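Margin note: ligand = adenosine-5'-diphosphate.
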Amino acid sequence: MKFSRNMALSYEILATHKLRTFLSMLGIIVGVGAVVLIVAAGQGASKRILDRISDMGTNLVIVNAGQTRIVAGRQRQMAMVTTLVPDDAKAILTNCPSVRLAAPAINKKLSIKFESENANTNVVGMTPDGFPIRNIEVISGRVFDTEENRGRRRVAILGPTVVKNLFGTDDPIGQNIRIGRVPFDVIGVTQSKGTDANGADQDDLIIVPLATAMRRLFNVTYIERLYLQAINADALYQAEKEIRSILRERHRLRGKPDDFTIQNQVTLLKSERDTSQSMTLLVGGAAGISLLVGGVGILAVMLISVRERTGEIGLRRAVGALRRDIRNQFLMEAAILSCSGGILGVLSGVAGALILSHLGYWETIISWPSVWIGFFFSTSMGIIFGIYPALQAARLAPIEALRAE
Amino acid sequence: MIEVEQLEKTYSTGRMATPVLKGISFRINEGEYVAIMGTSGTGKSTLMNILGCLDKPTTGRYLLDDTDVGSLDDDALSHLRNKKIGFVFQQFHLLERSTAMRNVTLPLIYVDEYPEDVEKMAEKALAAVGLTDRRQYRPNELSGGQQQRVAIARALITDPEIILADEPTGALDRKSGLEVMSIFKKLHQQGHTIILVTHDQAVAEHAQRIIVLKDGQITEDRLIKKQRDPDLELGNGEEKR
Ligand SMILES: Nc1ncnc2c1ncn2[C@@H]1O[C@H](COP(=O)(O)OP(=O)(O)O)[C@@H](O)[C@H]1O
Ligand SMILES: [Mg+2]
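Resulting structure:
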């Protein structure tokens, strides 16, 4: 009640010390703004990753040859393994009821050439089923078919980046390029997929029939990877189980560890989400610490304020303020400071996020929980750090305080 | 009614003990106009702080309207000050950044029942000191005399029984000083008890009674035969010019 009576006065006092008021709020503004912005950026990154993973395919299961390990955010094969072969795909299709489609694949960086233009790009050998499994769309030209694969035809489908590098704005369909030394006819161009979760360009690739790649380009009999599609989303783990058992049997692994690694879309999603969330938490936590610093800023300013306004405190006591009235007044001023700082922080964080999105640098998603947490955290920070100065003010004896002026 | 018996006050700073009041006893009835006089450093302000319930005597008794002030705790003293006492200080003690209006209403923040007509009360108090037209002025836009009158309006707003003024004219020129004394005269006529602390015989003579303090003791306590009239002097002063 006395709070509201005093509100206007406290506001006036804070308003007349504009610079100091602003400086005391600055830490809180930066802290809250950073929390809101970073969480928004993190959530944006998260969403991007999830989008990319769903871009990877539908009900996707991936089998990689050999044991793999994540190194620097990328999956690496730990040792050269030659046991995975195209027939494994056929065997899986016939023996695993939870698997609908299977596409064996292999890839390698090779130099490519069109007329005088050269480039190095990722050449993928894949069977036609790989297109639906991996959600790769061909927007101009056509996809090669099983016949062309079996016939080891030299046909190639280019990613948009390759088209740009070799042909600029010209139409590549029907042109003849060289992959290594082998000439290929361009028959199609894929839809752009942008960058993947690790920032790698997904459009910098050439897809050729698997058999052509194995025989004419890489000269190998094994493959690196199987792309498989489960019959539905619920069958992913069942599919994994069936695939594992078939592969172990075919690779004669009794008593030995797997010579392949199976992942499905759900586990990929989960691990990516975990990483990005722990990242957000970490950076958000760092921003939270800056909030703490903001609280210390309020502490310092309130201490100065108490010292400077000793005479005012004495006067208020003389005209009837109780100790707790003085305490509450300074607490309230600290709360006003941190609360306004919190609001300004939220506004600047949200504005920053919107600007970032708008300029197209980084997709951001404003997380309302982070806004609330930032706001309440800053406000309680201000009140907590306001306690000590407020108690100091309340402790002053009226005559001492009056004499101070 | 104010009654003090054998008041003593000793300040102890570190190992030094300074006795300032050494056995003060008197009684001031409701509606009296008393000047407490003495040279600088004799303990007038110390006595005034005790009378104003801002400080406690080291020993001795202080009865304010039959309440033994010595037995009250900090909160009760605050209430008492808020209700019964209006302070006027030599240095005005106004909130520099706030308007006259807000300065005047400051004590109302701490009353038990917040009155509904705060504005009216403030206007009335400002009218009583002749500053109706300065409501929205801040201290730095007012003369010293006007500032002191704002401070008096602040002391009046809770309609206290007692007004304690410590050297209220000490920082003012002659004319402003007389204007302030004229307000005290009016307040006295309205029934307030006024205790005026001053080192200046001439100022003290505006009161009805003078208590003279010397070295922490009362050396004189007498009624004034011929009270000075500030209004008359103000009138004269204006005619002369
Ligand atoms: N808080 C204090 N601590 C120590 N000595 C004090 C304190 N307040 C006042 N004194 C001393 O008490 C004496 C009387 O002071 P004061 O009451 O202010 O005198 P006056 O108002 O008559 O000039 C002075 O000598 C002063 O130094
Ligand atoms: Mg004094």
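The CA atoms of residues 89 and 241 of chain A lie 15 Å apart.
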